[in-house]
Each structure stands twice: as C-alpha cells, then as structure tokens.
Amino acid sequence: MNFDFAPYADGKSLCTSFLQQAIDAVPTGGTLVIPAGTYLTGSLFLKSNMTLELSKDAVILGVVDDAAYPPLPSRVAGIELTYWPAGLINAQHCENLTICGEGTIDGQGEYWWYKFWGPPEDNHQGGMLREYPSNLRWAVDYDCFRPQAILIGNCRTVTLRDFHCERSGFWNIHLYYSTDILVDHVTIARNLGPSTDGIDIDSCNRVLVRGCHISCHDDGIVIKSGRDADGLRVNRICENIEICDCHLTAPSEGITLGSDMSGGIRSVYIHDCTFDGASFGFRIKSARTRGGTIQNVRVENLKMTNVREPFSFQLNWFPEFSYCKIPDDYTGEIPEHWRILSQYVPPEIGLPTLRDVCIENVTSYVNASCRHAVPLAFSIDTDAKRPIENLLFRDIEITSRTFGSIASVKGLRFENVKISV
Question: Is 354:419 a contact under the CB 8 Å cutoff?
Fold first, then answer.
C-alpha cells in the first residue's frame, strides 16, 4: 500500500491516524521510511518484525495534548501502574524491531515541564510542585502524568540507532522488562525539563548502549529494577548491561545505578565514556526502603571535565522523594499508586546491599570554567548497618576543589590514586 506523506509534512496537520495506518501496513520484515518533513502526532504503536526509519530532516513531533497519549499499563519510576500515558513511540510485547535513521523524535516537552515545576519565571518552584505540601513531595512525580518519547516494554531483540531524541515530556528512552537491546549512536539533547532522563534501563537483560551523546536534566543513562515494596514484589533483576563510548554533557547527572534497585542490579560494565560539565560522573543512589543488591560492577576508562561529583554513592538519597508516607492528617482522595508507594518495607529487608565494585583508569579535572560551586572528588556514604563491601579504586587521578567524604565502606582499596584539591 502506498502512502502519500506530503499532505501531512507541515508540522501543523495532526496525522496520528495516518502514521498508524502506515505502520500497521508494513509487511513482516519490512521498513517504513518517514520522508523529510515534520509530522505532528500523538502516540504511535510499532509491531514486531519491522523497521521504522526516519529520513534526514524527518521529525516526529509530539502534539501538545494529554488526550493524544492514551493510558496503558506500565512500569513508572519503579512501580507498576495500570494507568500511565503511552509514549510518543511505543513498542509493547514486540520482537525483531528497529528504529533508525538520521531524523528526530521531538516531544515538545515544555508543556509537561511547566505542568510539573511551572514556567521559567517560577524558577522550578511552580506548577504541581507548588501545589503540593512538602510532606507529599514524593507524590508529585507520580501524579504529574507525562509521556516518554520512546517506551519499549516486554520486548526482545530491539535496535535503536542513529536518530535524535529531544524535548521529551518525561524520560527520553525507557526500556523495561526487555531482552537483547542495542541503543547505538543515538543523540539525546535539548532536554531542560524535570525528569528528562536520557536512557532508562529497567529490569532488562543483555543491553548494550554504545556511542550515544546525551544532554538531559536528570540521569543521563540509568539502570533500574523497581522501587520498595512493589519492586520487591516484582523482583526482576537488571543484568548484563554494557555502556560504552558515550558522551554526557551538562546538565546531565551522569551514569547512574538506582535509585530503583529493589529487584537487584548485576553484571554491569561501563567503559570508555566522557563527561563534560555533568553534575555527576559514576553515581549510585538508593534508599533505606529499597532492599535489593547491586553487585559485580566494573567501571573503567572514564574521562571527566568539570564534573561536580565524579563518584557519588548515596544510599540515603533524596529523603523527601524516597520515603513515602501518607500524612496522618490527610483527608483527601488517596490514589491507588499512593497506596503502592507507601507500603511498609521492614528495615531488615529495606537496607540496600552494594558490593564488588571495581573502578579503574579514571581522570577527572575541574578548571576555571567549571559551572559547579563546590565540586568534590568523593561523596560516598551508606547506612553503617549495611556498609558497602569490596570497593576498589585503581589508577585514578582527580583534581577538584574539595576531597568530599567516604564513609561506611568495608573493604575499601586505593591503588595508585592521586587526588589534588
């Protein structure tokens, strides 16, 4: 079936139905090529055994309309929900799928950014953040429904290659419950809004992220496996993850494990990446209600310039967000996801475990152009009842303004480590 894209390429004519018909018509093993032009659309749903190719100067432009992103069951920030907006580009229960080309996926995210924290003149303290009291700070991220740019769930053998992704309303690329995924030379940029993570790898197995350039306003690349009671219930590990040859720039928050780690994270290899002006380099974050184990992590050959914290391991991270409790005097409606988030996790299973981490051949320097007020070399701490075990730093050279701190580590080794402050 032939499709005439020309009438829909002006960026003004809503063409969700047209594009979906074109996708549905692709034969098994076939390719849908989106020609140059700008195509205004809501959620699109791909299928197995197809390729979506974005030609150079082709733009998939997300329409600014909540109703254009229908609700569907999903995994969102560590918990399973029955109701969350579909992404702009979606693949659910698919296999042998490719999204490629030199074109762009543009979420027009400002609408959702301002919904969360208000317009720029509110200095990130408006929107729903202002409407909610401080003791419900944890609820805002889950009550502010925002679509991802690309949502890949329960899929196998997926390739994402070469395209640009920008201005996502929420996370740019979310991979969950999926196996054998390649993200190759994708560029993620122009993401200045809240929670515009670059690539989220969530309870997946065998994922390679290679050669990506990322600028976003949260974690650049992050590995996750569920949050608190719900994550412990699902208990799906994220393992066999490789991240290499990637470049992360400001305002990205580096390459992160957690904070969602309840299902465990295992066998991670991060190497040959560069960081320029990012808030963090290699980061691990969690909380005392997560549980789970992070183990067998190897990090090597990283180069950082003007990074605020090259190594940050905080296992009591962001308490206002991490610890969910419905206030005793709250009299309003209690959504189901609040109940999920606030389920009690006993202390004996809530403390996370971090062990067997090897970090070597890393350089980190700050200079006069560093945008961060107080850069520091180390920020490492956890609960003394569950210290980090077997942490090795080898062939490390850091120039910063302060040393920072290291606490609650059992089996810390420094080999050829040079710190200048």
Answer: no
